[in-house]
Amino acid sequence: MRRGALLMVTLLALLTAPAAPSAATGQDEADVAGASGGTDGTGRGRPPADNVILLIGDGMGDAEITAARNHSVGAGGRLAMDALDTSGRRTTFSVDERGRPVYVTDSAAGATAWATGRRTVNGRVSKTPGTDRPLPTLLEKARRQGLATGSVTTASVADATPAALTAHVTDRSCKGPADMAACPADTRAAGGPGSVVEQTVATRPDVLLGGGHDHFAQTVTDGPHRGRTVLQQARAAGYQVVRDRAELAATRPGRPVLGLFAPDQLPVEWTGAPAAPGGTPPQRCKPENPARPSGTPTLAESTRAALHLLTARGDRTGKTTGKGFFLQIEGASIDDRAHDADPCGQIGETLAFDRAVAVALAHAERHPRTLVIVTADHGHATQILPDDARPAGLSTTLLTEEGGRMQLGYATAGPGEMQEHTGGPVPVAARGPLAHRVLGLRENTELFGTIVAALGLR
User: Are 378 and 404 in contact (CB under 8 A)?
Assistant: First the structure.
């Protein structure tokens, strides 16, 4: 065959051959086909996972994890989160209104990335960066598909990270009806959906646990609930409202649960001297906080309660639906204490978060079709320094459980100022169906696609 004829035959073969899927699309299809079994009752293939538990350590970068590990179990020890051996890295940058990278994110834009699969501007909650339009969230998608949904946090349930699942506001400060100055277009008077807490009650997750009672105590000023407090709106929507550990333990499936355990964020579990210019005398952190009410549930206790309620979630007759769930759990005050250069508060909250990870992993052992993902929204200012270093910023020396001395430094702001987030990638680890999709360096927005694929969300 002459060269011209051979070229023509080859070209015709290429043009008529079936199109191969892209690497990403082909992998997604293989993920679902390989992990599914049977159908979901509608003729569609059963999704790889029944449940997804997403655990977010706010501000929990490598240094924050390492400081907690060194202090509690020693440099050679392992935390519960270290047991997830399928691990990778996530980028953390946000964008400006023109879509250009902003190299250090805040928690609102960071949470929006995995909640919606889109990056946005710092301070914005689940809305587009340029046009300020709402973006559908994982929790909204899961709820529309009949899955149980929940959000647990040590912050106010109206804070940026939980809000990214249940609300859409121009600025994260617009938590309650009296806080809407930065969100004029979102007010009910302007035809918008209202504040974060108003939207959250309307979104109606099955379990919502954290702080924020003061935001729910605000009075609605427009719309069908005008004149009521948001808490009254929640009760009218059928929520069981609980205020402490005992009331949480007494809840039963069948009606949604709203746990409000503090006026705003929950008091931290550990205390100690903050970092200071020139350092502090060597100290042991105190695993206690006199300012924390005795009835305040730990993050692990709230996680265990949420998992019980979501697993047993049924209709009003008490019949279990068995459709699975999506649950987000946030250790919020790792970030808060790092902002204040409070290493003991920060380490205590990291360890409290790690105990919640242990609860999630134990649940997954009993329910193998559960995907557990542990990650952070951004890193923070903590540095682990040589014992003989003399850092220019704030520092302290901690005496560790194994008898060592660990110097921690904070140098992104001066004395009396708030320490800053950092822009490096953060760790991500997973166990369960599609866990391999966290391997390597991935974009923070890719968690959205992984969870959508795991649960078969549309």
Answer: no
Q: For residues 261 and 209, is the Cβ–Cβ distance under 8 A?
A: yes
Spatial contact of 88 and 375, defined as CB atoms under 8 Å apart: no
> Concatenated DSSP letters for 57-97?
ETT--HHHHHHHHHHHT-TT---GGGG--EEEEE---EE-T
Phi, psi of 143 (to 5 degrees): -65, -40
- H/E element holding 247? helix 245-249
**Contact (CB, 8 A) for 332 and 110:** no
The predicted model gives 404-419 an average pLDDT of 96
Whether 154 and 327 have beta carbons less than 8 Å apart is answered as: no
Q: Convert the pLDDT of each residue in 195-221 to its tens digit.
A: 999 999 999 999 999 999 999 999 999
Q: Residue 371 pairs with which residues in a beta bridge?
A: 52
For the entire predicted model, the pTM comes to 0.91
Report whether pLDDT(28) > 60.
no
Distance CA 417, CA 414 (A): 5
Output the CA angle 55-442-299, nearest 5 degrees: 10
How many other CB atoms are found less than 10 A from the CB of residue 67? 22
Q: Tokens 């991500």 sit at which residue?
A: 428
User: Which one-letter amino acid corresponds to residue 356?
Assistant: A
> Tokens for 229?
């407090």
For a pLDDT cut of 90, what percent of the chain falls above it? Answer: 86
| Residues facing 56 on adjacent strands | 330, 375
Sequence-distant (6+) residues with CB within 8 A of 191 are none
CA-to-CA dists, residue 402 to 73, 74, 204, 387, 388, angstroms: 7, 6, 46, 15, 19
- For 46-455, CATH number? 3.40.720.10
Contact 59, 380 (CB under 8 A): yes
Nearest to residue 326, comparing CAs of 159, 161, 451?
A: 451
- Distance of alpha carbon 162 from the chain centroid: 7
> Which residues are catalytic, by number?
107
pLDDT tens per residue across span 421-451: 999 999 999 999 999 999 999 999 999 999 9
Residue 168: is its pLDDT beyond 80?
Answer: yes
Q: What angle do CA 283, 288, 289 make, to 5 degrees?
A: 105
